[in-house]
From TrEMBL:
It comes from Amycolatopsis roodepoortensis. The lineage of its organism: Bacteria, Bacillati, Actinomycetota, Actinomycetes, Pseudonocardiales. This is Uncharacterized protein. It comes from the Bacteria.
Length: 154
């Protein structure tokens, strides 16, 4: 109340000092206005969505996925990262993506890895076609392995 009195330029010598009716009315109105503003602030504070809390930036494989495919939503990038990081390090994942595999081709990358075919083999051209092209056209990974072995690339 002391601050309210000072703000309204009503000065009393002590708590028992009487003030004029006009000063009392002014203080009553100021106090009511103060109470209304505080209630409004509380309502605004409670009605604000949690949008003020920023999500942490993506890191690791999720960040790499969103960088490689900017159209991905945050949640989709996280799902992709989870599916790839079960079997691959972030560096290996980036190598497969950089070699041309899509984010949905984790199972193909697993099979290729098991056969010993590495991301650096995918751009190799054999008889005018890359290994990646052959895989995308449906050639079985085992057949691709035989081609690489026949050509002396493995």
């Amino acid at each position: 109340m002391y601050q309210l009195c000072n703000a309204q330029q009503v000065y009393a010598k002590g708590p028992d000092t009487e003030i004029s009716l006009s000063n009392a009315d002014r203080l009553r109105e100021a106090h009511a206005d103060y109470v209304r503003r505080m209630k409004a602030l509380k309502q605004v504070a409670h009605s604000q969505p949690a949008a003020y809390t920023r999500e942490a930036p993506l890191t690791g494989t999720a960040a790499a996925a969103q960088k490689q495919w900017p159209e991905l939503s945050r949640s989709h990038a996280i799902k992709i990262a989870n599916s790839w990081t079960r079997d691959f390090t972030p560096a290996a994942t980036a190598a497969w993506w950089g070699a041309g595999l899509n984010h949905s081709e984790v199972s193909l990358a697993q099979v290729l890895e098991e056969l010993g075919i590495r991301p650096e083999h995918l751009p190799a051209q054999i008889r005018g076609e890359t290994i990646l092209y052959r895989l995308k056209e449906g050639v079985q990974p085992e057949r691709v392995l035989r081609i690489l072995q026949t050509e002396g690339l493995m």
